[in-house]
């Protein structure tokens, strides 16, 4: 319905940025992410308001990340930080950038970005995930233990973190706790990685 209304509307030059932003939202709600991204770009280009420019640039980066275009997302997040160095959205942008770096396998860069993303559970668990993936098992372990006391519930909302905590515990020798985390994983392909780790535990116990 919203798309039909917008298609018949002729915006003025003053309203054209808001028009494209509304179009982007409508396409997002209808699941048409590529069209949404295209209109977020136009809203950014036509806007003369810095707040709207910041908003549309962030949302465009996050939309790319949502559909798995992490290289494009990271590029736009970096453009944001260059163009708006003192933005009130800085922590949100660093958090998004860190997530994209992590998905691209750039774990050191991800860790550095998470450190600039504030003290939310997502940022601190993200930093631990980055350290763990870099092979800094003990450093990651320390953060995981602290965060499990502070916000254990977050782990249940992130299958990636759930697996990493289990694997970190396995590598640190706490196999009983590791099993609990591995058995709680339901999402593929992480469930297959959890089966592999459980198999390694069984193998190591049989050969003690």
What's the helix and strand layout?
Layout: H1 2-7, H2 16-29, H3 33-46, H4 50-66, H5 70-83, H6 90-103, H7 107-115, H8 121-133, H9 137-150, H10 153-157, H11 159-171, H12 175-183, H13 190-206
Helix pairs in contact: 2-3, 3-4, 4-5, 5-6, 6-7, 6-8, 7-8, 8-9, 8-11, 9-11, 11-12, 11-13, 12-13
Kindly describe this structure:
With 208 residues, this protein is an all-alpha fold. 76% of the residues lie in helices and 0% in strands. The chain is elongated and about 75 Å long. The model has no long low-confidence stretch (mean pLDDT 91).
Q: Which structural class should the secondary elements be placed in? A: mainly alpha
- Strand residue content: under 5%
DSSP strand count: 0
State the end-to-end distance. Answer: 66 Å
Low-pLDDT residue intervals, each spanning 5 or more residues = none
> How would you sum up the major sheet?
none
**What is the helical fraction, as a range of percent?**
over 70%
Q: So what's the overall shape?
A: elongated
Order of helices and strands: HHHHHHHHHHHHH
* Estimated radius of gyration: 21 Å
- Name the assembly state: single chain
Helix count equals 13
Chain-averaged pLDDT: 91
Features:
208 residues; mainly alpha; 13 helices; elongated
